[in-house]
Amino acid sequence: MSDNSSNGKMVELSSLENGIYLLKINRPEVLNALSQSVIAAIDTHIETLKSIADLRALIVTGEGPKSFVAGADISAMKAMTSEEAAQFCRYGQTVFSKLEALSCPVIAAVNGFCLGGGFELALACDYIFASENAKFGLPEVSLGLIPGFGGTQRLSRNLGISYAKYLITTGHMVSADELLGRGLVIQVVPQDKLMATCLDVAKTIAKKGPQAIKAAKQAIQEGFNKSLDKGLKLEEDYFAYLFSNQESKEGMSAFLEKRTAKF
User: Fold this and answer.
1) Which pTM does this prediction carry?
2) 120 catalytic, yes or no?
């Protein structure tokens, strides 16, 4: 379940427990920078995850204490033509959108630098937990570029258009505490507690009804850019659908019988 190349196992997918999986960018020597090969490996692993029937939660992280992902591989980008840049941009956007569309909750465990494409990767996850040393930013304008893997779109949707414009046009790095205060980061924890904290959240998710979790995520994502009326109809459809399977019957029976549901 890993990408084998001259750089070694650049991206690793591993099973932790009870349908919980870990996707790790493993290039600490270059602060886990994204390259075409790394993005391709992420794509391959997402396709694997889509085929896993018992998938309950995914944790995404970077190897080592210094960096989640510190952007893209600039040395590889420097020689790109406009056409090659467009293809690279499209591919990154496509892969990150696939990650966002996974049926299970995706948790970003952000350690250290989370810059450029790394911040865009975290934004494609459902929520972010960060270590105390985490630093976030989209510094592309310092290179004469703009974010290309969804940053201009997802950041504004998560933090509002004004703050997104500020971060992108200044290229400033901000702390995990700053984004905690703005609601983008869920919790800031000591570095040595980060993975345990994310695993505890994943375990909580894994104990809930898997079809309900999937429906909740889909209802929220699909309804986000719809009118309230259309969003409410979407919620009704998913709510009603869940009454057609055994999961909801087990959940409600367990509640009435004062026992733990077996999903």
Assistant:
1) 0.93
2) yes
